[in-house]
Design brief:
alpha+beta; D-amino Acid Aminotransferase, Chain A, domain 1; 6-stranded mixed β-sheet; 5-stranded mixed β-sheet
Length: 230
């Protein structure tokens, strides 16, 4: 071959990408109010921006967020930390982008400034809530119970990237606890439901939380003290 005759190395072909370039998000349905049901897992509805993270080749190759063409450019710190917290490669995570102030409190103004291009605005964080791909294979056809269990296994909590904490069955108790932090809603996901693009129906509900008169600013560390249901 020509390359061999010239004594030049023949490069190996580029490995085929294992992850899809884009995944259409699943959209939650509106719930009427807090409820208890053992078929559901309840977690905070984080006051941030929903985002999906692609990790391949031990690198954060893509970070898609609502309202941002390139969220990785706005949140470069996550690219340096998230891959190192994963024990698996070829992963797509669904979750929330947040911004924290120096005390660890969630700050919506800092988040807006960060999204507008102020890289020094706040300390970014990513809260993972679902696992869509793992080890280069789709997990969307598996139940949320299975996806959630695997998510807890593959992503170790760090300073910036964590798995959301949640409680099974007890939505009213969680709603009451979170109302003190000014959290406006909780997430209710059916444990036996598969992931699907578009409207989720009863598989995923955004349930409003009744506000209280005196609220405490939400802090990531305090909310993360909820029991972890894997």
């Amino acid at each position: 071959m020509p390359g061999e005759q010239l004594g030049l190395p023949i490069p190996d072909p580029e490995p085929a990408a294992r992850l899809p370039a884009r995944i259409e998000p699943m959209q939650p349905s509106a719930g009427a109010g807090p409820f208890d049901d053992p078929a559901y897992l309840f977690e905070p509805w984080w006051p941030g921006v929903r985002a999906a993270a692609w990790v391949e080749g031990r690198r954060l190759i893509r970070l898609r967020a609502e309202g941002l063409a390139d969220a990785l450019n706005a949140f470069p710190e996550l690219g340096a930390e998230l891959p190192g917290q994963l024990i698996s490669d070829g992963v797509v995570l669904d979750g929330w982008l947040l911004a924290l102030d120096d005390g660890g409190w969630l700050d919506g103004d800092l988040l807006r400034r960060r999204m507008a291009g102020e890289r020094a605005a706040g300390r970014p964080a990513f809260v993972a809530t679902d696992l869509l791909w793992c080890d280069g294979e789709p997990w969307t056809r598996r139940s949320f119970r299975q996806r959630r269990h695997r998510l807890v296994e593959v992503l170790a909590d760090g300073d910036r990237c964590v798995v959301t904490h949640a409680v099974a069955g007890e939505g009213t108790l969680l709603a009451e606890a979170l109302s003190r932090f000014g959290i406006e809603a909780i997430s209710a996901r059916r444990l036996d439901a598969r992931w699907r693009s578009g409207p989720a129906g009863p598989a995923w509900l955004r349930v409003p939380v009744r506000p209280v008169h005196s609220v405490q600013r939400p802090q990531l560390a305090l909310i993360q003290r909820l029991p972890l249901a894997g």
